[in-house]
Amino acid sequence: MREAEVSLWARVRDRVAASDPGLLRLAAGSRTAGSIALTLAVLAVLGSPVTHLVAGAIASMVASFAIREKQRPRQAVTLALGLAVALVSVSLAALLNTRVVAGDVFFVVLIFCAVYSRRFGDRGYALGLIGFQIYFMSLFVGATAATLPGLYAVLAIAFGCSALVRFVIVYETPAGILQRLREAFRVRLAQLVSAQMELLDAGPDEADKALETVREGTARLHETAMMIQGRLEEGTADESVARLVQRRIAGAEIAAERLGLLLLSARSAERTSTLTLHLPGAPVPSGGELPVRDRATDMLRRDLGALRMLVLRPVGEGGTAMSHLRNRLLGYRDEENLPSASAPVQDVFRGIGEAARAVMGLRVALDGPQDESDDSPATTRSREELDAESAAIEGAEEGEREEKEVPAGLRRPTTRAAVQVSVGSALAIVGGEFLSSQRWYWAVLTCWIVFINTASTGEIVVKGYRRLLGTVLGVVAGIVLAGLVGPHTWTALGMVLLFAFAMFYTAPLSYTLMSFFVTAALGLLYTLLHRYSWEVLVLRVEETALGAACGIIAAALVLPVHTDRRTNDLLVTVLRRLSEVTGAAVEQLSGGPGDDLLDRARDLDRALGDLRSATQPLTHPITPMRTRRNTAEYLVALLETCAYHARSLAATAELLPTHPSIAADPRLRQACARITHNISVISAHVTGEHCDDAVETGPSIASMLEDAAPGSPRYGRITDRVLRHLQRLDEAVLGLARPLEVPVPEPGR
């Protein structure tokens, strides 16, 4: 019974770790709700009125979520500066309370400064946000010069409680966050292997659904790898450890993605395009099942389960049985250990062997040396390779990185956004006054919010739509809850705490859900202030719609950045990063100097993530242009395919010091030259330069493999694998040309 309880708890823990990598959302929600609860408790002990309770709840919430810096000393400094900014903001709001015109003008100036301050990094972002939100809080509670002393005390208590919760109660360190992220990566890797097992066994009617689960698992694993990348510098002891963990995480991610591709190929009659793993809705090739269900395929199912167990089992558990299992999987890296089966099925066994090696490398990097007493020769060889790679990584020097060009003047994103949101807020103030002289600031708040983390008119439209939808649903919930709670102050405050937690827990998942919880919480706060009525909540919807409309108008008419222009700019950035990674990897594989290839590959991943976010207005379900949506999804999927092969090339190139069999093969440069040329042609076409240039076509890069020595194993030579990645990359880049209307020569010309 005890073992069953432990097993159940382990499964629950794994599910939580996988759904919330690093427990970042749980920590954010707990930190905010805890800060509000502690603030309310202190104010209640002091006998503060309800107005101060509401002000304290808002102030502590702002003090908690505004801080985004990762280093604790910097967080403390920003929090202290934030208190000073909050005191100034509430003072000006109270003094300008009776001066309508001057107060409105100052509010617009404050909004401009708050947005412009984002150019100064996380601290500028936090101070600007605190200044705006505290001014809004002052309007909400009706701050006056007479109430300032009490509000000063409330702000001091709120910021103090926020600091206590952040630095003592919900204690987080960069190393601890990184450790939880690594645990999430492990669980998500196991979940991806489980999804691949389901794909292997799925019948024709279930195959497409199983493939979609594999796609989701692959994307979630990549998301966690990128989160780890962002935490390595602060969460590791030194740069060499960070580079080693980065290399092992990248290796495990690539091995898992390759295994999924090999499984797809095993299900079909021919080699599967990598695009199938990245294009939403793409069917399983041949729609079918494994061609033969024999002893080899039964072994395949067994070994996929063993790989999953190897990923999940903690270090030190399992004893001899786990060692035997690990030795068997690593043995598939040797040709003589492969079972008799068709070539595609044998490729899957090879993929399992490579995945097991990646898992072992990840364990050594994260958990230190392990017991080697039961190692087989294949396991010993894998350990020696990993040790040699680790030594090469520790001895590598970081190459010089190019400086990023920052636009100046009104072309700077923060300056442009500050002008846009100021104009939109001015419109919202005027329109809001017509709707209500007492609640006009709701329109300004919505206008401000739709500009946060958006960079194009299309993104603002989508965010405004989501904000309005969440607000309407929240108003309905607010009406019901206000009727149930009635005059029960502490019940209402308890529900506000619950909604505050849900607000920040769901924020990264759904902006609509976050808006719902915000509006429902505000309905309860209105009830506490005895300002609740049906008319007030309807007015909330009207002000929200007005604010969203003003934001959209300002974004469309004032220094507009159209979605097409932004996506084109980001597409060019992705193509440039792709060319850099490919060129640098091939140069290193061909005997050139070393470079920080995995960092370059992660720069490509980040640029692709920005492009994926920017295309959301084009791929959103409300988009009426279906053809355009399909084209955007296809292009992003092709670029994800390119990024996978570029990551694989970068990871392979970093093995150069440990694999002298990678020769300075002239075929590599020859293959890379055409790819980088075609990327340059596509980039020039997107930017409007040399639009008549055509991409180059020629003999398949795969044909170069015919020069390999007779009898060499299919995946035994690293050069063979590199050329296959280049082949897939060449095909994907050519695939980009047609939807972007880049001229492609006719076959035979």
Automatic annotation (TrEMBL):
<feature type="transmembrane region" description="Helical">
    <location>
        <begin position="468"/>
        <end position="484"/>
    </location>
</feature>
<feature type="transmembrane region" description="Helical">
    <location>
        <begin position="514"/>
        <end position="532"/>
    </location>
</feature>
<feature type="transmembrane region" description="Helical">
    <location>
        <begin position="100"/>
        <end position="117"/>
    </location>
</feature>
<dbReference type="InterPro" id="IPR049453">
    <property type="entry name" value="Memb_transporter_dom"/>
</dbReference>
<feature type="transmembrane region" description="Helical">
    <location>
        <begin position="441"/>
        <end position="461"/>
    </location>
</feature>
<feature type="transmembrane region" description="Helical">
    <location>
        <begin position="417"/>
        <end position="435"/>
    </location>
</feature>
<feature type="transmembrane region" description="Helical">
    <location>
        <begin position="76"/>
        <end position="94"/>
    </location>
</feature>
<feature type="region of interest" description="Disordered">
    <location>
        <begin position="365"/>
        <end position="411"/>
    </location>
</feature>
<dbReference type="Pfam" id="PF13515">
    <property type="entry name" value="FUSC_2"/>
</dbReference>
<keyword id="KW-0812">Transmembrane</keyword>
<keyword id="KW-1003">Cell membrane</keyword>
<feature type="domain" description="Integral membrane bound transporter">
    <location>
        <begin position="428"/>
        <end position="553"/>
    </location>
</feature>
<keyword id="KW-0472">Membrane</keyword>
<feature type="transmembrane region" description="Helical">
    <location>
        <begin position="36"/>
        <end position="64"/>
    </location>
</feature>
<feature type="transmembrane region" description="Helical">
    <location>
        <begin position="124"/>
        <end position="145"/>
    </location>
</feature>
<keyword id="KW-1133">Transmembrane helix</keyword>
<comment type="similarity">
    <text>Belongs to the YccS/YhfK family.</text>
</comment>
<feature type="transmembrane region" description="Helical">
    <location>
        <begin position="544"/>
        <end position="561"/>
    </location>
</feature>
<protein>
    <submittedName>
        <fullName>FUSC family protein</fullName>
    </submittedName>
</protein>
<feature type="transmembrane region" description="Helical">
    <location>
        <begin position="151"/>
        <end position="171"/>
    </location>
</feature>
